[in-house]
Design goal:
Oligomer: heterodimer
Largest sheet of chain B: 3 strands, antiparallel
Mean pLDDT of chain A: 89
Mean pLDDT of chain B: 80
Helix content of chain B: 55-70%
Strand content of chain A: under 5%
Distance between the termini of chain B: 51 Å
Number of domains of chain B: 2
Shape of chain B: globular
Low-confidence stretches of chain A: none
Strand order of the largest sheet of chain B: 4-3-8
Strand content of chain B: 5-15%
Number of helices of chain B: 11
Radius of gyration of chain B: 25 Å
Order of helices and strands of chain B: HHEEEEEEEHEHHHHHHHH
Number of helices of chain A: 2
Largest sheet of chain A: none
Chain lengths: 164, 366
Amino acid sequence: MELVKPAFGLIFWMCISFGIILYILGKFAWKPILKMLSDRESSIQDALDSAERAKEEMKALQAGNEKILAEARHERDQMLKDARDIREKMIAEAKGIAAKEGERMLKSARENIQNEKMAAITDLKNQVGVLSLEIAEKILKAELASDEKQKALVNTLLKDVNLN
Amino acid sequence: MTNKINIYKHFLLILSLFVSFMVSAQEPAASSEQKENTSAEHKSEKFNAGELIIDHIIDSHEWHVAGHIAMPLPIILYSSDKGLSVFSSTRLEGGEVYNGYKLIKNDIVAVSADGTTDEPATEKLWDISITKNVASMFVSIILMLWMFISAAKAYKRNPGKAPKGMQSLLEPLIIFVRDDIAKSAIGEKKYKKYLPFLLTVFFFIWINNLMGLVPFLPGGANLTGNIAVGMTLAIIVFLITTFSANWNYWRHIIAMPGVPIGVLVILTPIEIFGMFLKPMVLMIRLFANMLAGHIIALSFFCLIFIFAEMNTGLGYGVAVFSVAFTIFMGMLELLVAFLQAYVFTLLAAMYFGAAIEEHHHEEAHH
């Protein structure tokens, strides 16, 4: 029966001892230990989180790099293509302009030649006229140098008139 | 820091006083013990296993060391007539009367002048002696204080570092109690309030269980297998549960929601009975488990002497099996020591958890 009969003395000391140990351990052991444990856990968690974040950032950075590289490549291609287009266009334009200019120059040359030719012809005509007059004058002078010739001419002229 | 050191010193002082008192008290005991030896041997001619086992597992006013040597313990008595009286347990040895007190089996009774038991005076007598269990509890408490305060110091000394020594022994257990008992049973939000109590109960039970397994001084006291210890712890659990209980808890006890009145007539008394039954079960489980462990271990040893009484050779033969079984039981008891501490703490945490449970959790259960 003594086994199941709680002794007052033991309960008394148990209450006191348990109270004391609960208080002292609560204040001087559990509080600092639990605080340190949670601090350490949170610091480990933080470290893990930041590592994870760094990894994510790394990945993002890499992806960004890739994107930038792809963009740059694309841009380069675009630029090359543009340059090529511009070159083609310029060449085509230059060709067009050159052809037109040539045409124009040819045309003006042809006009010039024509003009020169006309001027030369006119000049020639004038000179031919002057020369003809001089020749005619000289011939007349030679024909009418003597009185007999003048008389012969008048006679011929009169002869023609007589016929009429 | 100084505050803590002071408390430390204080405890060491108390411990040293305690020890020196015991040693000094033992001096006069030695001679009387020698006289007792011869008479005791004659008395216990027939080996009585039951008596021996009971003697070992119940509380006692002296701490048995070996053979007929026992460490005397201080007896502290208070009665309204005589006031406080403190003396060594050697004064009452062998049924002697001292200061009007006499030790009958393990109970101290008041005796009148002619040597007969004075019943009315005994009724008024409060025995708060430092018994074997109390002394063992003091030792375990000093051990715990040393363990945990030194661990706490180690945490402060190198914060954020990996644990070392005592720290690394205790840390997994502390985390186990915190995460697997407190957090899982009470819940993430409110467990912090109960954690100091749960940790203290867990380590108190566990360390005392282990000390009970040590067969010599300062172990061997069957403290956790004593109903008074289980009762005190269970009452503390009951008080914490009752005082931290919220409206939801009381409503479920007094009138379970969604239950018709006819059923409530039966259910409410059961619920109220269950409220008291829970700590009772807590007490009985710890008490019975630890007691049973001690009884089994002692029974195996008693077998040796029972058989040796028939035949000495038989005794030696049985001793081989007994020791083997005791070792096996000792291993099992190591597990039980931990398991009982765990179960007690877990159930206490679950009772706390049920007491502060919010309504929506309840709904999910049904």
